[in-house]
Amino acid sequence: MLDSVNKKIEDILNRVSQRDINIAKTLNNCNIIMKELCQFLSYFNHIIKLLSDEHEPTLHTVLVVYYMIKNEICLIKENEYESITLLKKYFCI
After folding, report:
1. Which residues are CB-contacts of 32 (< 8 A; sequence separation ≥ 6)?
2. pLDDT digits over 49-62, tens only?
3. CA dist., res. 43 & res. 61, Å (int)
4. Do 27 and 13 meet the contact criterion of CB atoms below 8 Å apart?
């Protein structure tokens, strides 16, 4: 779902950038944030599939996944937008 919204933002950005540079800059920032959000949430999509496997035991995987979320996925980078940083802080409480 977020990918389809991201594609719409890119489409609108291409149309608007020719008319108004300020709107184009704002939409470009939204586009970047949306891409980062999609990337961040894609990890959780993978984790949900991993922990809901019907054919392999998953209880032993929970701790490994928890530390992966805490130490890798929610690692805050210097050049991130504040909204993504806040989201990562929320998930790592």
Report:
1. 81
2. 888 877 776 777 88
3. 15
4. yes
